[in-house]
Amino acid sequence: GGFKFGMSKEDVLAVMQKQIDEQYEDKIKATTDIAVQDRLRRDKKAEIARIAGTYIEFGAKPSPWDVSIVEGEFAHNTDEAMLDHWENEGGKNQRRFFFFYEGKLWKMYISLDVSMIPEDKRNFDTFRNVMESQFGKGGVDGGTITWRAGEFDVRAVDRLKDYGALGLAIEDPRMRSEVMAMRYQHKPPEHQTSAVIKAVIDTNNSDHPDINANGR
After folding, report:
1. What's the predicted TM-score (pTM) here?
2. Rounded CA gap, 67 and 62, in Å?
């Protein structure tokens, strides 16, 4: 769709600006009503502003996306950021997330429209059959199917049980290696339980002698 890995946020917004301009141009040409044309131009400007306003940097503070369909697609304090756009033109109804590392686009995640799939067929098997019919056999691990496609990797992710959604991730494997290394470097230390709390919750008496041992 005109997007390339390594793009800046401004580059991505410029591509979306062009796409939205084209969409609204058809609408504006379809009417001769000046008032309607002016409203459409205002709507176009507002849509671009709304998309730009979704940009978020994942710093130290929790984000609204920490519990969401993309909760496993980013980390905090690793110079990662995200932009999102709800694509609902031309019969589409999907949400596209753009992930940046050090200011460069390295991954897109698309939350797919599942409304066209009958409810009794909204399951991983149906999803897998559809995806493999388009991309060929992939590596299956639980609810994830992975394909290696040279310059980019693709993941199909089953999130039906927790979010009623299906996702498709396209990412740059070279940049992913850098991102994973940075995440490992900034991984928060594992929580250590204090000795006092351990003694309280030690139901097996493994940290202290049995007062009833030897008949006492």
Report:
1. 0.81
2. 10
Residue 210 CB: number of other CB atoms within 10 A? 8
Amino acid at 3: F
Walk along the chain (216 residues) and give the pLDDT tens digit of each residue: 789 999 999 999 999 999 999 989 999 999 999 999 999 999 999 999 999 999 999 999 999 999 999 999 999 999 999 999 988 766 677 899 999 999 999 999 999 888 878 888 888 888 888 888 888 898 999 889 999 877 889 999 999 888 888 999 999 999 999 999 999 998 877 655 555 554 555 445 444 444 344 444
Handedness of CA 25, 30, 34, 38 (dihedral sign): negative
How many Cβ atoms from other residues are within 10 Å of residue 7's Cβ? 19
Three-class HEC string of the chain: CCCCCCCCHHHHHHHHHHHHHHHHHHHHHCCCCHHHHHHHHHHHHHHHHHHHCCCEECCCCCCCCCCCCCCCCCCCCCCEEEEEEEECCCCCCEEEEEEEECCEEEEEEEEECCCCCCHHHCCHHHHHHHHHHHHCCCEEECCEEEEEECCEEEEEEEEHHHHCEEEEEEECHHHHHHHHHHHHHCCCCCCCCCHHHHHHHCCCCCCCCCCCHHHC
